[in-house]
Amino acid sequence: xxxxxxxxxxxxxxxxxxxxxxxxRLHETRARLGLEDAVGFEHRPFPLELFDERVTPRxxxxxxxxxxxxxxxxxxxxxxxxxxxxxxxxxLPALEAAQAVSAHDVxxxxxxxxxxxxxxxxxxxxxxxxxVILEVAAKCDRVDVDALAGALDDGVxxxxxxxxxxxxxxSDAVKGSPHLFLPDGTDAHNPGIEMHWxxxxxxxxxxxxHDDPAIYEDLLRRAAx
Length: 225
Fold this sequence. Notes:
This protein is α+β, with helices and mostly antiparallel strands. Helices cover 47% and strands 14% of the residues.
């Protein structure tokens, strides 16, 4: 996996609660260690809806969010509080938005990616919608909202998302969302988490057997070199 020095590559879906947890812990741990200038996050889309060929699974996320949210309540969580018909059936526009911004400013993409996750999981916003994405972006200091609007209208990042989907499909390395890769070859799928499902997803609920948030300190220090 090709990862630039001082970078953690994050393969994930914005609609994945485990990825929301991982991104939150990465940001918080990086700030606590004072490594903001030493380590950047490169978001690589892992569009679950394309792998699974289904819409964002309402029942599965309803079972996951209370479990994952309990591991870091401060990350921004709530049960879906908007009308059912506002549930986002696709995360592709949000993934495209983050990639469009990343092409010009990786740090701005970090900010937008995290804000979109909070908007979905913590505010019950339909981040499938163009106007919602732009409203979220407007609250991000580093994001050029006009440029993002133009990129969304031109569809310039769709090819990037599809190329990453193709790359992950062809690779045995990327196991799912989230999966982190470091310049030294270290990788971690759903870092620090060991879990299983009681009954299949959509019918049962996830059980966390072990959670080790300290792994993020090691990953960030490794990425910093």
